[in-house]
Amino acid sequence: MLPTNFRANIRSGKHQTHTSGFCQNYVQANLVILPKKYAFDFLLFTMRNQKSCPVVEVMEAGQFQSKYAKDSDIRTDIPMYHVYEHGELVGKKMNIKEVWRDDFVSFLIGCSFTFESQLIRGGIPLRHIEENKNVAMYTTNIKTKKAGVFDGPMVVSMRPVPDSLVQKATEITSLFPKMHGGPVHIGDPEKIGIQDITKPDFGDFVGIKEGETPMFWACGVTPQAVAQHANIPFMITHSPGCMFVTDWKNEDYLHEG
Amino acid sequence: MLPTNFRANIRSGKHQTHTSGFCQNYVQANLVILPKKYAFDFLLFTMRNQKSCPVVEVMEAGQFQSKYAKDSDIRTDIPMYHVYEHGELVGKKMNIKEVWRDDFVSFLIGCSFTFESQLIRGGIPLRHIEENKNVAMYTTNIKTKKAGVFDGPMVVSMRPVPDSLVQKATEITSLFPKMHGGPVHIGDPEKIGIQDITKPDFGDFVGIKEGETPMFWACGVTPQAVAQHANIPFMITHSPGCMFVTDWKNEDYLHEG
Question: Distance, in angstroms, between B9 CA and closest chain A CA?
């Protein structure tokens, strides 16, 4: 399906779940919307934390159409939004037209869904895609680098990978620094503060079989954990796994800059 | 001389001119100081214009010590500052302690002086250094990419290079994207809107001899031209050529990230 049709399905309410595995040849992005007052601190946060927050696009205040998605509307084209107030998740919304303000700055942040198609091509099986599930995500004890009011823990996505393919998966993803790059941790979940791997903070656990190693990548849900930790007064994000799908082909993005 | 001693000389008024050719093994940086209100627009401008504005460090609002320069003070450690109000250069100051405010955000931006030591090692003669002069800088007709209120022309530095070494100088500087990278133009100055090459907008003209080609690199003075073009209400910068000298060795910076 073309992204423009997929976004239309989301806008009309036909598609209401995660976007993992959909439009696999196109760049998907995490979303962070902040009042302009907090935009500088956050942009600086992304610069200092490029592994978790590789910026794809920053829209001007009030702008809601992405230059990477024809006729798109960032207020309607994501299946589910999270609204945070003072660090609390206060609402989940299917669109944010009613709460939109002219001083809102939208940030699109690279997503590991983009490198998944590269992993699959490289012969790395991805169970959450095979089972049409969302990827498992965890809040860790890895600290981000503070910037202004933004401070808090890194969120990671986890994929179980056959032991013999761990090195290959590392190599493939390391080639793509603009979508989280190589893993931040391989193996024992407890070493990064994950107490129970079977209970992700976001998304679905798909099991880790005998002969598989859990691999962890920095995740664009990190800003949500940071907003909670730092009591950011107001922020809107996508719901984890429910991404913004652009018209930008993975290959073109990968070879950009 | 060590940067810490050089900065002390600047602070005490012993060194009052440009810094070209001084502390050649250490990273020098352009300075832009803005009220936090404009910091987001400017940081976005640097992201969209990395060739002219490669960011070395962004300090938090009110912070005046660079993490790359021990015991430094950004308010005193530059030989000459420019103060802009509503697009006009309204003052030149030897220090800015009296006008400093807690909402000032300081940006350090990569400088071509850093790649000059690499050019010299590569056998490229640099006449402005041989003659202890400032490099010649020109406002061009090359447009920058707008971000918020920031919009305007690119400023370039010019070095005359022997024809046979133009390719080598291009190759050497292209290796250093974080300090302006390869040239933005080679040859005819009129093609980038420079009417009289003998009259630079900033710095000193050192002649272009028979058998030499003028080479132009994006320059960290660009924000000053942009501030003037866009009527930015308030901005402080270094005076062109009078840079902030860090303790960071060129080699370490070059191989960072």
Answer: 32
